[in-house]
Amino acid sequence: MHLPDGLIPLDQVVIYWIISLIALAMFFVRLSEDTNQKDKRIVLTAVLTAATIIASSISIPSPFGIPMHFFIIPLVVIILGPFNGILVTFLSLLIQTLIGLGGLTVLGANVFVLGVVLCLATYITYTFISRLNENIAVFIGTVMGIVLATIAHIAILILAGLANLEMLLLTLVPFYLFIGIMEGFVTAFIVQFIEKIKPELLLMDKI
Fold this sequence. Notes:
Blueprint: H1 10-33, H2 38-56, H3 73-80, H4 82-98, H5 107-129, H6 134-159, H7 165-197
Helix pairs in contact: 1-4, 1-5, 2-4, 3-4, 3-5, 4-5, 5-6, 6-7
C-alpha cells in the first residue's frame, strides 16, 4: 500500500498530513499522562517498530501471483493501543521511505491509511468483540483493520483520479482480504503465545 511521490495532488497530500499529525499529537498527549508505563512503552515501541520493518520486508508467495507482506500493525494495536500503533506505523514507514519504499511527500497519506484507519478500525473492532471472545476479536479486528485500510487506499486513489473503482475493487480487495485473513490467524496465534509466556504485555494501558 505504499504510495510513491507525485501521484497525489498537493492539496490532498496536505489534508492527509494534517490528519496524521493530529493523530500523532494525540499519542504524545496521552504518553505524557502515562507516567507509570512510559519507559516500558518506549522500549516496546522501538522493538515493535523494528519488528514491523523486518516483517513487512519479507515477501511471501500468494495464490494471486503477487508476493504479500504482513503488516504487524494490528498486533501493535492489541498490545499498545491505536495511537501507539499510529506512531509505530509512522516510524516504520519513515524508515522505509528513507530506503526507497514509498514517497516522502505522501508519507502522510500512507500513515493515514496504514496508521490512522488500520489502527482505529482494528482497535474498535477488537474492543467490541473481545467482550465475547478474545481470540475471535483478535482475528476479526485484524481482518477489519486491513480491509478498511484497503478501502481507504482505494478512496485515495479514486480521489486522485488514478484509477476507477471497479478495477480497484476487483484487484486490491480480494488480495488484501486474503492477507487480512492470513494475518488474522497469525496475530491470534502470537497473542495466544504472549498470553502464555508474557501475559503482562497484554495488560498494558492502551493509548
